[in-house]
Each structure stands twice: as C-alpha cells, then as structure tokens.
Write the structure tokens for this entry.
Amino acid sequence: MTGAATTAPRMVAGIDIGTLTCRLLIAEVSSSRHLREVRSDRRILRLGEGVDKDRVLRGDAMARVVATLKEWRQIIDAYQVEATAVVATSAVRDAGNRQEFLELIARETGLQVEIISGEEEARRTMLGIRSGLPADIAGILALDIGGGSTECILDRPGHLPMVRSMDIGVVRVGERVLKSDPPTAGELQQAREWIRSETQAAVATMPLTPGLTCVGTAGTITALAAMAQQLPAYEPARIHNYILSLDVVKRLEAELLSRSNAQRVGMPGLKRGREDVIAAGAIILKTMMETLGMGTVLVSDLGLREGVLIDLVRPAR
C-alpha cells in the first residue's frame, strides 16, 4: 500500500514569474518525472519594464501580475493540488522593492514566492528540459533566453552541470541598446558585440567538447520555431524538438529587423505582445549560435515551469 502511494502521480502546480512572461502549469507528475499537463496558461505581463534602468518594479506592472495570480490561485484551488511552487527570476532579483512585491502577492493571493538565483533557475530549467529530450541525447549545452537574463547550462552524463548566468535578455537588450524602431546599424553592432563578449566570457571555462547538442528553451526560442513553421496558432507538439538552423535564424532576424514593431504584428507564428522583443531575441540567439559555433539548436517547449514541478515532487535532498 505504501509503495503504491509513493509511485502514484501527484497533482501539483507551478508558477514562473518572469521578466516578460508569467506562466502557470498544473500537472500530474509521476515518479519517473513524466508530466501530464492538466491546465496551463502563459501571459506577457512585462513585470520587468524599466527594471534595468531604475532597479524598481513599477506599480502598474506589479498590479498586472497580482491580478493574474489572483485568477490563477482560484484555478489552482479548483484542482485541489497537493502542493504549489511560485518562483520569480531576473526582474524580481534585480528590483530594490522586491520585498514589497512579495508581501503584496502574499497579502492579495496567499501565495509565497521564492526568488531564485540564475544558477538555481538553470538547475530547475534543466530538470524540465531533460524530462522531454529524446532518449539518445546525452551531453547538451542549453540556452535559456529570458527577458532579463540568459543562462548557459552544460550538462553531461557523469559530470556536475556547469551554469553561467548572463545579464542579457530580450527586455534588457531592448531597453539598454535597441532604442530605435527598427534598430539602427549602430545599435545592432553594439548589441551584437555585447552579446558576443558576454557569451565568450560565460563559456570560457566550459569544456565544450564535440558531440554536444545545443538545446534552446523559453519564449524567444519557441516563438522563432513557430515563425519558422509559420504556425497560425501555437502548437506545442510541432514546436517541441523542432530543429532551428542558424540559416533560418539569420533569415528570421533579417525579416524582423526590416520591419518596425507595428509592422511585425500579424507575422505568422508571432504571438501578439512579442513584436517589440522578438528582434532582440533573434539577435541574441543568432549571435550566441555564431559565437559558440552551433549550426543548429534543438527547441524545447519544456523548461523552468516544468522543472519547478519536477523539483517539487523530488524526494528531500
């Protein structure tokens, strides 16, 4: 009886409060780390607007997130989950008023938020990625391009994972460098040099041996995969494990940079609300792939929010 109880799937919920996007996932997680999605949602709420410059979360941005969390709390309660984990990443890490934000969430929703470091974000992201990789893939270099930061994660069998977190993300690059619409040649050069320099520094001590599979996760990667296939609606099954080539990324970057934010609205595969950050995402991905010498990237629709759930049901360490 006891053995059956320990192996039965557990219904759990996770929320990822990101710089650009907030994500909800309710799923049954088995002892073998298989997830069966029950309910999910993702919303572009732009919590990190202005944080790179002012180092504070804006009142209207906090209000958007709290309103969404109230709604999600009701959904979570309706499913009677065993446990819930809520994590916050780059924008909240960097904000001087982060404690005020956490107290506001607790007061309005009853949810307790854990602010995770870039390294901890990468660890849980890897749990999510690994849960959905083809069985024949061993060593990987994962790229997690977020709104405020980007994590490089080297994960090889028999070795401890190596993580480097860079303060480069689509919101941060846009606010700090790409101020014109569309960006000027000078802005593009500055952005690419910055990304290249940070990437080289991040992987300088990583043994990037031949045979590694480059895996990309999070909104930029999945959006570019959707655009590459010109999907009229988001289809996880067609995005997950899709292979993006450097040539396709270059083509998408050129298409995006030839248009203004307004002209990007309605591009096949591009979700509304991402038109002002997707160009920065394409620049980051293309520059990193070129710097790392990676001709392709395997797209993972699984990442931090799945890893949060897997971590939640893991035996105490």
Notes: The domain at 2-118 is CATH 3.30.420.40 (Nucleotidyltransferase; domain 5).
